[in-house]
Amino acid sequence: MLPIACLADNYAYLVMSPGARVGVIVDPSESAPVEAALRGHDVELVAILATHHHHDHVGGNLGLRAARPGLSVYAHESDQPLGRVPGQTHGVADGESFTIAGLTVRALHVPGHTLGALAYVVGDAVFTGDTLFLAGCGRLFEGTPDMMSASLARIAALAPSTRVYPGHEYTLDNLRFGAHVEPENRAIAARYATVAEHRARALPTVPGHLAEELATNPFLRTREASLLARYETKDPVVAFTKLRAEKDRF
Ligand code: ZN
Ligand code: FE
Prior knowledge:
By secondary structure, the chain is of the alpha/beta class.
């Protein structure tokens, strides 16, 4: 699972099959850095997995496909008739599993950021696009807060040892917000210090661990008494709605 820095703060990921020289790319924002990574690792690209249709996640699809006419491009089934994922060849349903490049991939439909958002589970990794960021979550462009909190809950229910590969390097900003809404949370303060030191050296913060997300990501913690009290509710979805709105203004 090799992160490939793209654009200003996006990550594409190269996922290589065990032992073989073939692989898949998650969310190629642009083709040039992806082509460089494929050459550098001597990997033949056989598929693209798109988490959602936004340009900064699919901008490299057509360039990569132009050089490889047989390349498969996977995205949610609802995006295929809309034609909004360039080069899409496969429409994936919620819970669908498929094998590509010797890797078993399971797709989870996680609407909220967009209606066709998917997370892909490969072994102990989950690729979350703009649904779950490290210490944060994506904006609600197309879905409702109920949808997004249900989607995040599905990701949160994966094994705590799962490694989380998000679409953007937003971790430090997210932790600054987390420390603001959970000032008593020592795990957030400690993670902020570690991540600040990483970022000062321009190191990536990906991947994360789901267990650490559960402890430090307020968007996965809206059942916590402190967050329910902050937003004066007993309903975690109401707390989620207000938390997301506060982050939008932060
Ligand atoms: Zn997006
Ligand atoms: Fe994005």
